[in-house]
Amino acid sequence: MDGWDEETMRAVVRVRGGARPAEAFDTASAGAWLAFDAGVRVAEDRPWLLPGPARERERPASTLLDRLRGRGGSRPAPPAPPPPPAVALCDPDGRVREAALDAVRSAPELRPLLVVRCADWALPVRERARTLLAELPGGDLFPLAGLILRLARRERGGFARDLLEAALREGAGGEVLALTAHPDRATYRCAYRIAVERGLLTPAELAATAAAGGDVTLQELCAAAAVAAGAGPGGAATTDPAVLDRLLTARSPRVRSAGVTALRRAGRHRDAEPYLADRSALVRACARYVLRQGGIDPLPLYRARCAEPAAHPGAAAGLGECGDRSVDAEALWALVDHPLPAVRLHAVTGLRALDAVVRERLTPLLDDPSPGVVRATTRALLPDAALIPQPLLRERTAPDRPRAVRVAAERLLRAAGRHRRPEPGRR
Q: CA-CA distance, 250 to 202, in Å (whole number)?
């Protein structure tokens, strides 16, 4: 959190009283530094927000309202001692902030505030801070990466980010790889991106990261890099089969699709067949593409797999995506009553893709015991929601109905413009 709160105000009071920042708040947190920066200005202009006894002890000689009126406090106050550098670096007065910047040379622990001042609204402060930050060795920026990338979201935050990225491109590979394990998402994404640019990770490491990672952006980056690393001169495929197999067995559909697409370049067109019935539409589309590139028509393969739906539930959806409505629709309708929920779900999905939905035949599946089937049925019926009898949907919004059924009925009612409004006096 970049703003201030009571904990931040306590930290400000402690630092103003002489404590080091590391003694007052978590200096490893980018958000804590930004909150401290905001908190110093709050303490200066709104002392009544300080916690407990500190209100009187820390009250400045004049408040913001006094200064706006052009007068000081009601009683003359003795000259205040200069604030600690950490406080001066966050002072509301830009001249004070600028004068305090040189203190960072002898106080490395204050470098986070130097980074903050690089995005300062006041041009003299910003320019001086940037000059000082640019003097630091590139490796000294790595511990500040989380704060730098957090500030990069601000209007003037690009300077420090550019310095950091240049340092990562020129720095020791081990230090870049160390940042790939950083807990901050923006930091590890940046480190991985530059590690990929520099070729610091092997195809096997990239594939493992893509397959095991939970970050979609990271999955796509590493999967694409693992595949690209297997392209030899002239585009010839040199991808290690173990790397491809790691991508093909990933849980993420995006990673699997990258692996399936890479089968074409590897000349393994036939190996795409099992993915025709993948649970992901993206992976199924990639499998069809690879097979067609190898001169194989996927449609007969889909029809054969739909004859054994329990072994290939996703084949029903794939048949709808590339089949012939006049030929294949009835085969999909036959699967709508299959005992396996996965087969029913993909059959409904296939009918929708084939544009073969018949409202009267599909409406009973709103009561299906599988929530997945109910959701697929709802999506298929949305275009015809206004034609579904209102009492049928109202009945399914009753509290004793399963949650998936209630949600489906309400969604269809809204789509039909007949969503029930609260009765007067009730919410």
A: 18
